[in-house]
Amino acid sequence: MTDDQELVRRCLRDDPAAVRELVDRFQTDVYALCVRLLRHRHDAEDVAQEVFLRVVRSLHRWDGTRPLRPWVLGITVNRCRTAMAKRVKRPPTADYLADLPDRDPQSEGGELAAAIGACVGELRAEYREVFVLFHETGRSYEEIAEIVGRPVGTVKTWLHRARQMLLDQLKAKGLMPTEPAPQTT
Hints:
The chain has helices at residues 3-12, 16-38, 41-58, 68-89, 110-122, 125-136, 141-148, 152-172. The chain is an all-alpha fold and 185 residues long.
């Protein structure tokens, strides 16, 4: 029996220590993914709590032949999608400004980093998900495919499109050259 299977078995027996271990094992990844996808710490905290409630309630449906982490992160992505859909229906608030990191406008790359962050936030939800999972959390194509419930080929396509859209947006903002630099001989 794998470590994941043993942990789930203990959780299903209503062992509070096992539930705490489950949360401890995945809370950093879940919260980080929520922050990256939702781009708002308060919303990320709320969604992360919802994720763990959903995970604990759904453990009986987990396929013990598969790793637990991608299953938990898949629930995280789905909860973030739900939160983003709800966000569209309510008017924006200014409290997100407190969640933005302090940036020194003179710092090298600060403007580009801020522009990339803004552009990532404007991507279609599925493109943003695969971009964040690949570039910011270092997941493999296979892991991402399992998390988002799509074939690896689709993940690669979405990631390519996300990169192309980011490049196009950065070019439009004048932060990337639109033509290749001339070569000197």
